[in-house]
């Protein structure tokens, strides 16, 4: 018996050593690709810039290709189990609570920092150079109407995440309400099979992900080398970036600690997703990596991750809430509108609701802010000055959004781990 134990122990040790070597290779691969990304980005070579832009575009398309069907299938298969006495309703309730909590806190942090730093107005000569006619002006109601589909396939083709979520929720609930039958079981098995196939594709993409990060880094540096005009916007950008950094490094880790979780362990496990989010600037496109990181690195129950993360990707926008609040207050201030305590409190709730309606795509929050302010007759002239440096803000916002998604998923998984049927071990080592 002792000999068998020794053999098993040796086998386990070999597996651990193999896993350690694999992690080391992965770290080296990431490190080399990141260094090359900086080198190629600063290189004065049009060919290298075109090549890196091509690589970044390829990976962006791959993420977009996977993201929409993952969102739909994950939500459908999860909601379909509601009729089986599952815990999906409980998961949904916890998800909404923590999503709204983190988003409102992000808006409050942004409001406090705005009041503390008090960014000054821009000189009139700078404001006057902005071409207002180039700005997109649509009402917030128009934005909401785009969520309501008039065609079953069009949202999937156009990548309208909110519409896809709406369709998936309707189909999933309808499937849950059907009487048990062979047809219903066949449909559920078919959808589950497609979901497994997509997750296999995700793991293949993750294997070559560092190459994509190299392309994203090089492309970003090439864009920033074109120059950024800060000028009188320095304090404004300080408020936007500072509020996001506080949310990322203080608020969300503190929430994890309060719930009895180790933020460093979770950050380590979610690092691939956060890295992709920062450089791709799309939380929806990052979703496949986010789900794989949560399940593979942190042992999050698939019942939780495949329901919570698609929902959070669409409605959990901490960074966007902060941007909407700060930018709206700043634009109103520059337009001569008095900013009172009542105004700030009102915009905390407006920013929270608006952020929930934002799509997790590059620059989604920027255009949503324009739409929201235009519908409320707030001048959007200054958005043209913000645009040249929005790339950096968008990167940080997306990273915060995905980190918040991971925070909510891990907290929900921790809170409900003893109440989920056949739940896998949620505290697996990274």
UniProtKB/TrEMBL annotation:
The keyword Oxidoreductase does not apply. One of its GO terms (cellular component) is plasma membrane. It is a multi-pass membrane protein. It comes from the Bacteria. The keyword Transport applies. Belongs to the dicarboxylate/amino acid:cation symporter (DAACS) (TC 2.A.23) family. One of its GO terms (molecular function) is symporter activity. Pfam families: SDF (PF00375). This is Dicarboxylate/amino acid:cation symporter. The chain crosses the membrane at residues 27-48, 54-79, 91-114, 156-176, 197-221, 233-258, 307-332, 339-360, 366-390. It is found in: Membrane. Keywords: Membrane, Transmembrane, Transmembrane helix, Transport.
